[in-house]
Amino acid sequence: MSALTPPRDIAIVGAGIAGIACALSLSRELTPLVPDLQITIYERHDILSTSGGAINLTPVAQRHLAQLGVLDELDRMGSEGGADVEAIELFSMRSGRPIGSIDFVDQKGNGFGGYKGRRVMRIVLSMAMMAVIERTPNVEVVFGKKVLGGEEINEKAVLHFSDGTEVISDLVVGCDGVHSAVRTRWVDPDSVSQYTGMSFLQATIPTKSLSSKIHFRSSALNVSRHGSLLTSFIDSDHEQIFAAAIVQFDEAELSNYRLDSGQDWASKDRIRRDLRNEMRERFAKSALPCIREMVDSKADWMLYPVYQVQPGSRWCMNRVILLGDAAHAMPPRDESAAYALDDAILFARILSRYYQEPLTEVFEAYERLRRETVESAFKESRRMWDRNRDMGFLESRLKEWMMPFQIRNRREKRESAWEFDATKVLLPTPTPSEDMVSLNSFLREEKV
C-alpha cells in the first residue's frame, strides 16, 4: 500500500492572528515535505479589519512572533510597533494606592527567555504579520470571501462562499474567531457564541491632552467596585494611551450602544454621549487624578461586547479543524494572543510529524495535546473576569484586600508559564497499526 498523500491545498478561513500565524507555521513546517504546497487565507472583510483595540503580547507571544518573523517587522515600525511592558501594575481607584503587579521580567529586570511584554494596537500587529505573508511565496490572502458553509466530498473539503463561488481543498482550518462560520455552519452548528455579560468600553487618548501625572510606568489595571479600567501606552514614545474599561453590561442594552457605519449623525452623537456618561458614572470619583481626567475628556468610547464559546464543543471533522477563538474563545486574559499562536505552531508541528497519516489521526493528536490546557485556561479566565462585575462596597474592599495575596501566590506559576515555547513541546508519535501507512510512519520515527 502506498503512503497517504499529505495535504497540498490548504484553505484557512480568517486573516486574524490565528489565521495568519497558522499559514506562516504551516508554510515553515510543510514546505520541505510538500514542495508544491499552496496555502490560501480567505477573509470575509474587503480589507484588514480595524476593529478591536490594543493587544497585550506576553513573553510567550513575543517569543512565538519572533519565531515566525513577525517581531522584526514590529520593531521596524518604530514607535508604532508598540510599547515595552515590564509589568501590569494594579491600583485601587478607591484609595489610589498600588495593589501589586503582574511582572513580565524577573527580579533582576530580565525578560523570560529574552522577552518581556508589549502593548500594541491589533491593526498594527496585523500589518506586521501581513508583511511577513507577502514574503512567503506559497501563501496567498483573498479578501471579501464570506463563508456560508462547507462539506466533505470524495476525500476533499469544500467551502461555499456568499458570492456563489466554492473552493475545494485537502484541508480547511477555521480561524474565523468567536462567531466562526466554519464552526456554526459546518463543524458544530449547536456551538454558538455566548455573551459573557461583560463588555469593553475603550478609547485611545493622546498623552499630551492630560495635565495630571501619569501614575503608571507603562501599563496598569485600575480596579473599582464598578469594573476595572486598563490604561496602557501603545507606542514606544508614550504619546498615546489605550484605555479599556472591563464592565458588566446588560445584553438587552447592547443594541442601544452599537455604532454602525450607516447610522445618521444624531444617532452616533447620542451613543457617544451616552458612553461618555457611562464611563463618568463608573469612574469619575476615582482617587487617581489621571483616571478622572480621562473619563471627563471627550474621548470617543466604543463598546465591544465580549463573547465566548463553551468548553466541550467539537473542534474537527475529517478534513476540517478549528483553531484559536473559533475553537475555544474565552474572556481575554494576559495570555489570550499567545493561545492563538500556540495553536498555530503546535498544529503545524503535529501535521508535519504526521504528514503521511490520515488527517483524523492528526486532529486526534492535536486535541489530546491542547484540549485540557485550553479548557483549564477557560475556567481560570472566567474566574478572573467575574471579579470585574459590579459589586457592593464590602465585597469590593474584600477583593482589594485579597488581590496582593493572590498575585504573590501565583507569581511562580506565572513566571514558569512565561518560559513556554511551543516549538519545544514534546509531540506524540504516530501510533503503529495494521495499516501499512501508519506502520511505515512508525518505523520512520523509530529510525530517527
From TrEMBL:
Keywords: FAD, Flavoprotein, Monooxygenase, Oxidoreductase. It comes from the Eukaryota. GO terms for molecular function: FAD binding; monooxygenase activity. Residues 9-379 form the FAD-binding domain. Transmembrane segments: none annotated. The keyword Repeat does not apply. PANTHER family: MONOOXYGENASE, PUTATIVE (AFU_ORTHOLOGUE AFUA_6G14510)-RELATED. Belongs to the paxM FAD-dependent monooxygenase family. This is FAD-binding domain-containing protein. It comes from Penicillium diatomitis.
